[in-house]
Amino acid sequence: MSRYLQSSSLLATAVGLALLSAGPAWALYKVVAPDGRVTYTDRPPTDRPAATLKTNGTVVQATGLPFELQRVVSQYPVTFYSSSKCVPCDGARQMLQGRGIPYVEKTVDTSEDILSLQKLEGLQQVPILKVGSKQLVGFAPADWGAYLDAAGYPAKSALPTSYKQAPATPLVPPDLRAPVPEPLRLQADTPTNVSPAPNPTPPPPPGFRF
Fold it and tell me: Between the chain's N and C termini, which has fewer beta carbons within 10 Å?
């Protein structure tokens, strides 16, 4: 067996163990019964309202998705930070949409957005991809693809034809913005200053965790 296949097998095993130990993260809905009893389910109830679960601050848009994709989205939601003046962001967006990845896009175009990104991610550069809690900085297709594979997203789009990607929204809504003393500049990151892609060369260390 080649080194690549061995590493891929270890990667799949590590992610599989993480999924098995995730517990309620597999559930997509939280249901509160009239007596106050709380249950979690992967199917929306028909007799009472249910709250859609969220992970790492990203709201899960599970309605209308195939069941297997719902489970992946609920456990490893994808958040994409972009900017209107970022060429790598355009390529990253095309890659996500071409592969059929449901994601939440947050734009970073104002000084308030940049400050918020610094607080959330510790960075002032884009693009950034979050797969669950794993942070990927700069658009490197092989790097992004490998972590999406490891999380369980399908290699080809499994989205129904009726699915519509939610439009991008500002990281800081206009009504919540406060004056910033000095304008800030955002760095458009490129694959030249990111860590080597975990797949195919070189593979990620065994047992990495999202």
Answer: N
- List, for residues 97-117, the tens digit of each pLDDT value: 999 999 999 999 999 999 999
Q: List all residues 6 or more positions away from 74 whose beta carbon is below 8 Å from its beta carbon.
A: 25, 26, 27, 28, 53, 55, 60, 62
N- to C-terminal Cα separation, the chain: 26
Q: Which among 74, 73, 86 is positioned nearest to 137, based on CA atoms? A: 86
pLDDT tens-digit map of 122-144: 999 999 999 999 999 999 999 99
* 3 Cβ neighbours under 8 A, 6+ residues apart: 203
CATH code of the region 56-193:
3.40.30.10
Distance (Å, whole) CA 181 – CA 179: 6
Summarize the confidence of residues 50-75 as an average pLDDT: 68
